[in-house]
Amino acid sequence: QPVAKAQKPQEEEELTLKPLTADDIEQIRQAAYDEGFAEGKDEGFSKGYGEGREQGQQDGFTQGQAEGKKQGLADGQEELNNKLTQL
Predict the structure, then answer these.
(1) What's the CA gap between 86 and 72, in Å, rounded?
(2) 64-79: per-residue pLDDT in tens?
(3) 5: helix, coil or strand?
């Protein structure tokens, strides 16, 4: 004959919730603010750094190109003047 196993009665855990105090709510609000601020700061820094670096490289390239062209023209003019005086 099958023997029935005795089951232990499940104890129900009584969950006691206390109402939030103004201090509890302020702590939650401050924690959320701090988390959002840190996340926004990190994201803003990363984006700003990337855009700034890209813009800086472009500006440096443009400036270097302009200075190189100016110097090349000056060197060419000097070379031309030297050749003309030799004639």
Answers:
(1) 21
(2) 999 999 999 999 999 9
(3) coil
Place of tokens 């670096």: 53
Q: Is the pLDDT of residue 13 over 80?
A: no
**Amino acid residing at 22:** A
Domain borders along the chain are 25-87
Q: At residue 36, does pLDDT exceed 90? A: yes
User: How far is Cα 9 from Cα 14, in angstroms, rounded to an integer?
Assistant: 15
Q: Average the pLDDT over each of 11-15, 31-35, 65-69 and give the range with the smallest value.
A: 11-15
Burial profile 22-48: b = 16 or more Cβ within 10 angstroms, e = fewer: eeeeeeeeeeeeeeeeeeeeeeeeeee
- pTM of the shown model: 0.43
